[in-house]
Structure formats: structure tokens, C-alpha cells
Amino acid sequence: MQYPNNIKKDFTKLSISHSNRGMNLENELNLSNEYYLKKDIALIYKKPTPIGVVDVSYSNHKKTIEKAYFKEPSTLDYNGLYRGKYIEFDAKETLSKTSFPLSNIHVHQTTQIRNVIKHGGIVFLIIRMNNLTYLLTGEDYINYIDTEKRKSISYSYIQNKAYIIKNSYQPQLDYLKIVDEIYFKGE
């Protein structure tokens, strides 16, 4: 293949950045939440990460944040209302084929999951693994970490306990269909 200016690129030595891993999942969830909002199905929003700005530069009538810090640990990625109930969840992706590392979920997030359950809200994790997207209830997550001593959730546990969220046209990830099956079964 001829490249511009005869520059050849060796694609076998590219480093892979994991900094934006999960962005596809988040984008799909954001589009799904926009759909839910437009159709007046639910009010679910991505929470902004609380940051404190230290230094700002100004150039060409633009402000650029040069230095910032996280003010406090945020809880879970998304929250809102659905069918009169508070709902909160986090979205996670892993490249591992055999397990979901518990290090992906921070202590303050586990505390938040426990608190939402305690107060009667709906809470869950959306996990993308092995090219599938799963909804794992907060209750099943808490039960796992309270009874198992592993540093990861085995893929077999996810396959047995979590629900597969199928991709569709609109919404892209209809996770509320699963929420209906779990939390609003008899209604």
C-alpha cells in the first residue's frame, strides 16, 4: 500500500490505550437514555464527575482547564427515576474473558450500592464482557462479594445470575426491559 509521502506505518507495534475503554458502552447508554427521555419513559442521567479547577488558561477567547482535581469520589455513573422508583447504576467493561475484576468497582461505589438497596431503590451494574452486555442486580453483586473471597466475579456467575441486554435499534441498549422483568414483574 502506498502511504502519503511514502511514510509506512507498522500497525503491529501500536500501543493500545485503555483510557477510553467503556466509552462505547457509555455512548450506547447515553443514547438509550436520550431515547427514554424523548419517549417520556424514564428520567435517567449520566452524573458529572465532581472536579475542582486549579488553573485556567485563556487564548483566542477560549478557556482551557490546565489543572484540576477530583473533589470527591463520585458514586455510580447514572441515576434517575423510572416508574416512580429511584434508579442508579454503573457501567463497566472488561477485556477479560474469564472474570470481571472487582478492582473495577471502588469501595465507595459498593457502599452506594448497599445504601440504594437499603432505601428501596433499584441499583445494578451493566457489565460488557465477551462482546455481550449484562445487567447484574445490586443484590446479586452484594451477595457475591459478601460470600466469595475472590478478587473477581467469575464469568460463569455472570452468565448464571446476570441478564443479557440485547442490542436493538432504539433504544440501543434496552436495559429497562430487564428492569421491568426483575423489579416490576407482577405489575
Textual characterization of the structure:
The chain is of the alpha+beta class and 187 residues long. The chain has one domain (23-183): Trna Endonuclease, Chain: A, domain 1. The protein has five helices and ten strands. β2 and β3 (62-70) form a beta hairpin.
Mean pLDDT: 84
Radius of gyration, in Å, reads 20 Å
Second CATH tier, the architecture? 3-Layer(aba) Sandwich
How widely separated are the two ends? Answer: 61 Å
In short:
This protein is α+β, with helices and mostly antiparallel strands.
Note the main attributes of this structure.
187 residues; two-stranded antiparallel ribbon; 31% strand; 5 helices; 10 strands; 6-stranded mixed sheet; 29% helix; alpha+beta; Trna Endonuclease, Chain: A, domain 1; disordered N terminus; globular
Which SSEs are present, and which pair or pack?
Layout: H1 23-38, E1 43-46, E2 51-59, E3 62-70, E4 78-82, E5 85-93, E6 99-101, H2 107-118, E7 122-129, E8 132-137, H3 138-147, E9 152-154, H4 155-161, E10 163-164, H5 175-183
Parallel strand pairs: 5-7
Antiparallel strand pairs: 1-4, 2-3, 4-5, 6-9, 7-8, 8-10
